Amino acid sequence: GERPVIRRLSACLLAAAACGPTHADCDEATCIGDDGPCLGAPRIHPTEISPLHFVAADFDGDTHVDVLAIGTTIAGAVVAELHRGGADGQLADPVPSAAVGCSAYPIAGDLDGDARADLVYPDCEGNALVFWGDAAGLGASPSVVDMPFVFVTSATGDADGDGIDDLLAFGVADVAQQVLVRGSPSRVLLADAPHVVEGGIAASGVRTGDVDGDGILDAVTWAGGQVDTVAIARGLGDGSFTAPQLRTTGTIAGAVVLGALDTAPGLELVVASPSQQQLVLDAAMRSHVTAVPPYRPAALAIADLAGDVADDLGAYALAVDGFDPEVRYYATSPDGALVEHARLPTPHAAQSVLTPDLDGDGISDVLVGHLAAGAFSLWLSSEWT
Length: 385
Prior knowledge:
Elements: H1 11-14, E1 30-31, E2 38-39, E3 43-46, E4 51-57, E5 66-72, E6 78-83, E7 95-97, E8 107-109, E9 118-122, E10 128-131, E11 133-134, E12 137-138, E13 143-145, E14 151-157, E15 166-173, E16 175-181, E17 195-196, E18 205-209, E19 218-222, E20 229-233, E21 245-248, E22 255-259, E23 268-273, E24 278-283, E25 286-291, E26 299-304, E27 315-320, E28 326-332, E29 338-345, E30 352-354, E31 366-370, E32 375-379
Antiparallel strand pairs: 1-2, 3-32, 4-5, 5-6, 6-7, 8-9, 9-10, 10-13, 11-12, 14-15, 15-16, 16-17, 18-19, 19-20, 20-21, 22-23, 23-24, 24-25, 26-27, 27-28, 28-29, 30-31, 31-32
């Protein structure tokens, strides 16, 4: 396999205060791969809350990606603040958002087809709350979708091919079940009849995407921290799915992400196991286990650093462990394994990582959340060298 490239670390990255509270030029930077970009100091955005989770999407329909930070108060109440996006990836000062539910981990999708992202939370009774995107960011009055069971995890995507995102939810009512809530321009959302997950697992997490490259949305589920198996249900294009195919990954999933890491059709599956200190790349019906002790990868993202989905040299899996002040970059090796290429220092311990395109140049930016510090760091690709 390949060896990680030499890390060019600068004092300003190891001590963010040396560069001030926002972006500043530094003489050195962390370079990703032999020919990849070099990232200097980040922009640091304080939050008014302790952020557990971030959602990056265009909620107001102005074509700029916004960032919603979600956390909890000491009393356990969910709170949120919205950082609205602007030209060149600039984010406005945060404003409190009334778009909160009974969880700090909502998901986004355009469920009414108006080119504004909507936000989905569970309520405290197991139903779905949908906050609709509007010109102000997010509306304060959600629609309530009656669910046939208390759902545990959900994802959005166009499962029936009508160009509007749908909501796919999983839960347990005596047995593992799934249900599709079809998106609609009328904003009247009704759940289909639920289906028993035949031969599948009681999902605690789900990701949607075109796994097999046929242009139809598929679903990948897993039971976090329990079994070394993921279940892949192929979409049929009408909102229904095949019975899930169980795949042994060789590791107990803590986090799962789908993304394009090579030029082959479809998406690759990356699984992180903090308990077993492993990363797994599942591609072409094969699983490749990479041991990373003592590192405990807890959150993942896929980044396209080249701005060209046909250029697999620009695709990386990013991982953080929740404790170390760094992001690790992994790329695929010729034998199909994940190989570390670089470590990007962060100003505080990194609990979450996202790769939205905030500046609109077609290249993934990097957003890292810092729970204890009450902030997030942002590396815009337009500022890389």
